[in-house]
Amino acid sequence: MVLWSKQGVSVRKLEAGDADHLVRWLSDPRVLEYYEGRDRPHDMAMVQEHFYRDDQIEACIIQLDDRDIGYIQYYPVDPEEREVYGYGEGDGRIFGMDQFIGEPDCWNRGIGTRLIQGMVSYLTNTLQADKIVMDPQTWNARALRVYEKCGFRKIKLLEKREWHEGEYRDCWLIEYSAANGEEKRDES
Fold this sequence. Notes:
This protein has 188 residues and is α+β, with helices and mostly antiparallel strands. The chain contains 6 helices and 8 strands, in the order ββαααββαβαβαββ. The longest helix has 16 residues, at 111-126. Keywords: Antibiotic resistance.
């Protein structure tokens, strides 16, 4: 089931047969350098555990012109994570989001920007998100440039937040606020 499509980029729900894509992508050291770490190649058992067992996460596949090229997930931020991030109940509907493009030949082509813009539009217009948050590692300058171009802003440094290649790495809490964004008007 396709959730949205815009400028050749679309997002559809994860299906059982997509596990093979995830194993291939998450055993490629070029992808793992940015997602999970090169010391954590995934086999089928790990993919099943991490991508098919959490009912709170909406797991999806990214497509470019009907070619499966990556993974994206979104989820309502739970109370514990809201507390870590510094959000209260009065901050509205907050969704978290994580993604990677698993086909390196699709990197540096503007696809990530279209993906994030489309996902922000979907979450704010269809699911009525007030805020969208992510926590990319601080060293991932390419991803941070894309997110900032799409209206996210750095909110808080999360020290030693994520285990990556043998050490805990710092991450930025970044936020897109629907109240400040323009995606509410962009229904295309």
